[in-house]
Write a sequence for this structure.
């Protein structure tokens, strides 16, 4: 050992690996590690592609079936060329090398002289081709990737860049082929310190062009941003007559084919397209919802395919798939039957005189489909429909739904010194969060807003403004926003017995259909846009409402009120035409209420003109004046204190909010709901008792089919034993009554009723 090394070399090796007994061999066995060579390269590379390095990276299968990437790196310029393959095979590698060598020779007259790689290219066919082409192959030592440094490092840089791009854009992992290709595209156009801040693109193309060639960068966009790509049908003008069909796919930027051709991923179609006709929204990235929705739909389709349907349901499905005409309804009679449905729930609205026609329609439907008649409407989409025909009143309640969401978000109780909120929102304005909310916080807040939004648009207009404000912070909620949402839910739970009331008013003393419009001028301090709202009332009850922020900044309260009035007028004209199409013809014209006298004068007085630099505001003014002069609308002034839409534009104090609730005809029906529940309980007890008596054999008299029917008659307790079939029992101090109907007029048919009446009298205690 000493004879083969100089004394200095031996001394250095001994200091590094030697042991106490002077054994160099034993020290090497124990301490050897990777040897790092810092010697400069022996040769200079004069031109592009004279020396290239080849390396591979394996990944999971991509959406197109690729499983690995082959990187070819030019040692002169640092330019990287990626190739994507789906198998590990010598023939595939050789085909790629032949393609690359031919391309560089034909396009740029660059001759490949050396190829550096690991031993994956040290195969017989590949080596024979190298010799025939005069290409020198320089393999790295076995298991020593560092000797293939350029390709190894280039592959690592590209994969790091691709990883960062995917995480920032939140794209699925199976799009790695597009992401890696885009990372290489950007790498080749990024200046490098080792090349005196030139890009690989410049060094590669400038030598052949004989001049400095810089890459174009103006076409680069935020990676992963939303892209609206023109559809193929729109490009080819295949659907010229379908003017209202969508003309663009919603996708996301995943790469570049050239400076004006982009690669766009369409989540709903699950594929990537190349297109020039595209508009980018660089402020919006992919959030994963489309992908989750598509996956859920696919899984649902698989589950549906496994379901075995009953015979009647199979018949229904076959009719739907065949797109067969279900029923030809003869409409020779004068009537106004309204039919509306949601999925498989169908509701018929008609007058009593039209019962025969409705029965005919239902009978026809039943011959085609397996259907069940559920009787009078009580529930629809979670809305409880309560009627009192004696007073001509109807209520819509969502008590059950509100109790469900309050329990879900743990807002159905208060602790300590807390009080139930009297209003849905505090008077202080909610401001944006100055930090970034977690994903969990975003999802939880969005679920809360989604839950209360359904109540706000269905039966609870008193929370419409609060929900409109909360929805602005869906993307970045703070703890303050969560508390504000919880307050709305607690307010709903505290007032869960409130229901919209319709009917019971004398329409001779009021208009049948009116619309109230209001605006709150510049109440949003961040952008000074105004809030607006409208409320439509039919026969004394609200049927449509909206609370929103205006799209533009106005310079006066008159302009803000004018924009709100225009929106309300357009919506009310549509609703009035819809009512006419449903057979409801009103005797008076359409009235729009407004609490700003100056705005009304701008419309009704010819000599007044609005002076504004906002062109669209001036257009709205002229349009309203046109509708007013044509007699299609009437503008009426209403004091702010009596304005029904006031609570749709601002937060209110407790007293003002209570007045707003009264104007909405939101009525507390807690006593009525409790009465209905007690009546249902009693009815169940009576039915249960009758069943027990029948099983005991004591209820077998002829014609003794008894049915419990609930009514409300406020009389003294009595048992009426007239010769009629009705026995009415009422309890003292309550309005709950039971009418027991016996089928038949014989005395024997009435006898079994008396024990049930006596039992109910003993058991029922108000």
């Amino acid at each position: 050992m000493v004879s083969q090394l100089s004394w200095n070399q031996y001394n250095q090796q001994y200091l590094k690996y030697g042991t106490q007994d002077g054994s160099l061999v034993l020290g090497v066995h124990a301490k050897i590690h990777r040897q790092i060579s810092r010697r400069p390269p022996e040769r200079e590379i004069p031109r592009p592609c004279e020396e290239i390095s080849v390396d591979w990276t394996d990944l999971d299968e991509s959406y197109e079936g690729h499983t690995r990437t082959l990187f070819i790196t030019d040692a002169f310029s640092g330019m990287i060329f990626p190739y994507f393959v789906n198998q590990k095979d010598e023939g595939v590698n050789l085909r790629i090398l032949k393609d690359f060598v031919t391309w560089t020779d034909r396009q740029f007259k660059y001759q490949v002289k050396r190829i550096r790689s690991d031993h994956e290219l040290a195969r017989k066919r590949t080596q024979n081709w190298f010799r025939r082409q005069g290409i020198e192959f320089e393999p790295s030592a076995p298991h020593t990737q560092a000797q293939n440094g350029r390709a190894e490092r280039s592959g690592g840089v590209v994969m790091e860049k691709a990883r960062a791009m995917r995480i920032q854009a939140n794209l699925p992992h199976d799009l790695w082929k597009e992401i890696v290709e885009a990372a290489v595209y950007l790498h080749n156009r990024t200046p490098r310190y080792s090349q005196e801040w030139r890009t690989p693109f410049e060094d590669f193309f400038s030598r052949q062009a004989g001049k400095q060639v810089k890459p174009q960068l103006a076409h680069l966009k935020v990676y992963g941003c939303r892209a609206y790509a023109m559809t193929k049908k729109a490009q080819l003008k295949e659907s010229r007559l379908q003017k209202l069909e969508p003309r663009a796919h919603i996708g996301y930027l995943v790469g570049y084919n050239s400076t004006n051709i982009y690669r766009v991923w369409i989540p709903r179609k699950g594929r990537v397209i190349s297109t020039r006709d595209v508009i980018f929204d660089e402020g919006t990235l992919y959030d994963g919802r489309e992908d989750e929705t598509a996956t859920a739909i696919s899984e649902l389709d698989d589950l549906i395919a496994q379901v075995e349907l009953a015979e009647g349901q199979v018949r229904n499905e076959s009719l739907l798939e065949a797109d067969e005409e279900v029923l030809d309804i003869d409409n020779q009679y004068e009537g106004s039957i309204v039919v509306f449905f949601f999925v498989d729930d169908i509701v018929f609205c008609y007058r009593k005189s039209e019962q025969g026609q409705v029965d005919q329609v239902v009978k026809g439907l039943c011959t085609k489909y397996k259907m069940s008649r559920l009787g009078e409407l009580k529930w629809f989409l979670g809305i409880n429909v309560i009627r009192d025909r004696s007073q001509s009143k109807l209520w819509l309640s969502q008590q059950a739904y509100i109790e469900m969401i309050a329990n879900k978000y743990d807002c159905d109780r208060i602790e300590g010194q807390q009080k139930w909120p009297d209003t849905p929102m505090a008077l202080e304005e909610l401001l944006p969060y100055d930090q970034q909310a977690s994903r969990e916080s975003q999802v939880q807040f969005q679920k809360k807003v989604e839950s209360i939004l359904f109540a706000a648009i269905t039966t609870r207009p008193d929370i419409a403004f609060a929900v409109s404000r909360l929805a602005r912070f869906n993307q970045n909620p703070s703890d303050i926003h969560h508390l504000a949402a919880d307050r709305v839910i607690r307010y709903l739970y505290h007032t869960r017995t409130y229901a919209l009331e319709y009917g019971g008013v004398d329409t001779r003393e009021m208009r049948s259909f009116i619309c109230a419009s209001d605006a709150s001028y510049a109440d949003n301090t961040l952008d000074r846009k105004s809030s607006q709202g409208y409320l439509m009332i039919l026969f004394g009850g609200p049927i449509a409402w909206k609370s929103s922020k205006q799209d533009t900044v106005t310079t006066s309260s008159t302009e803000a009120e004018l924009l709100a009035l225009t929106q309300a007028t357009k919506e009310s004209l549509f609703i009035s035409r819809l009512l006419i199409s449903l057979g409801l013809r009103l005797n008076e014209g359409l009235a729009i209420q407004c609490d700003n006298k100056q705005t009304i004068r701008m419309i009704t007085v010819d000599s007044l003109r609005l002076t504004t630099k906002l062109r669209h505001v001036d257009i709205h003014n002229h349009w309203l004046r046109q509708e007013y002069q044509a007699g299609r609308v009437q503008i009426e002034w209403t004091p702010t204190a009596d304005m029904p839409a006031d609570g749709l534009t601002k937060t209110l104090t407790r007293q003002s909010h209570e007045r707003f609730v009264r104007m909405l005809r939101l009525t507390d029906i807690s006593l009525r709901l409790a009465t209905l529940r007690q009546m249902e309980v009693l009815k169940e007890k009576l039915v249960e008792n009758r069943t027990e008596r029948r099983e005991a054999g004591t209820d077998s008299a002829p014609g003794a089919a008894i049915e419990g029917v609930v009514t409300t008659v406020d009389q003294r307790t009595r048992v009426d034993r007239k010769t009629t079939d009705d026995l009415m029992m009422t309890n003292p101090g309550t309005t709950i009554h039971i009418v027991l109907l016996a089928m038949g007029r014989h005395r024997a048919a009435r006898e079994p009723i008396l024990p049930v009446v006596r039992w109910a009298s003993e058991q029922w205690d108000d």
